[in-house]
Amino acid sequence: TGAGSLLLEDRTTDPGLAADLTAIRNEDDDWYGVLLDSNSSAEILALAAILEPLGAKKLLAAQSADTICLDADSITDVMYLASDRTYFRTAVLYHPTIGLNFAAAAWVGNALAYAPGTITWKFRELVGISSYTLTSAQRAAVLAKCGNLIETVAGRTITCDGKVAGDEWIDVIH
Known about the structure:
Elements: H1 17-27, E1 33-34, H2 41-51, E2 59-64, H3 78-84, E3 90-94, H4 103-111, H5 136-144, E4 149-153, E5 156-160, E6 163-164, E7 168-169, H6 170-173
Parallel strand pairs: 1-2, 2-3
Antiparallel strand pairs: 4-5, 6-7
């Protein structure tokens, strides 16, 4: 972000995700994918910190519209922090229109419908999810932090890169 730039950041606090997740697991722990209906950095990182050490296999797919994720020099954004903590059960997808679409939910719904090992989470076409334009520097910043994005390639809107924050392919983790 430079002088005169607008910074967008979701600052929703953690509403008690640990208690919610405990109640869910106590009721039924036979599930794999986790999504948030709001996606502030605080919520994503709080839930990731709870899910990552679980012995059971779970995957958090989160969406962020925080423009600081697009800054290569940022060390405070959710993508950088999740990557720095080497989270192998957390994937963060950048999409600037959070609240208007649920790109992470579309991604999970699209990819989890297949048996593990039969598809890649990269190049997924998400129905109803729009592409957006990033500069080459912004795109590189997201991918360097093991973040994910949506882009249009050869007229098709697809996901890229298909990695968890710990720098592994989601399909390998899945």
